Amino acid sequence: MSAPVQQLVESMFAGVQALDIERATAGMADDIVLFDPHYPYPDMVGIVAVREGLTWAFTQMASMRFDVDRWFFGADGTSAVVETSTHHVLKMGSKRLDFPQVFVIDTRTEASGERRITKMRAYEPYGPHGSTGFGLKIGHAVYRLTHRRR
């Protein structure tokens, strides 16, 4: 039952890795909700917003790659969690970005009988940015200085 969801997600990743908007979004529902904190507007609601987000991403990246480490499938076959080792290269300065990432994905079968991605949420193993992130870094440093691990 999980094969169609896995194929859908693999096709989406292949489109992103090819930096191809059409391929990347071919399996997404028109009313998809996608959240990814890497994007200028992390909450993307609807296929138009997702396409705009990906267009921005593709202008920033020389390459994007997701190596799937593990899959977890919902019992009903409509959802998956994918753990990836993510490898991107920025166009500016050719900086490599290597980090683990998890995607939580929901799908549904449309009236046409085709399964589509309806919700996708990206999780990264690092905290918030900006002033909140700066404050946390200071707090963490103070804690580490006053509470050494043994």
TrEMBL record:
Q: Which InterPro entries does the record associate with it?
A: NTF2-like_dom_sf, SnoaL-like
Q: Name one Pfam family in it.
A: SnoaL_2
Q: Report the domain of life of the source organism.
A: Bacteria
Task: List membrane-spanning regions.
Answer: none
What residue stretches are annotated with the SnoaL-like domain? 9-107
Return the Gene3D superfamilies for the record.
3.10.450.50
Q: What is this protein called?
A: SnoaL-like domain-containing protein
User: Which organism is the protein's source?
Assistant: Agromyces aureus
Organism classification, top ranks? Bacteria, Bacillati, Actinomycetota, Actinomycetes, Micrococcales
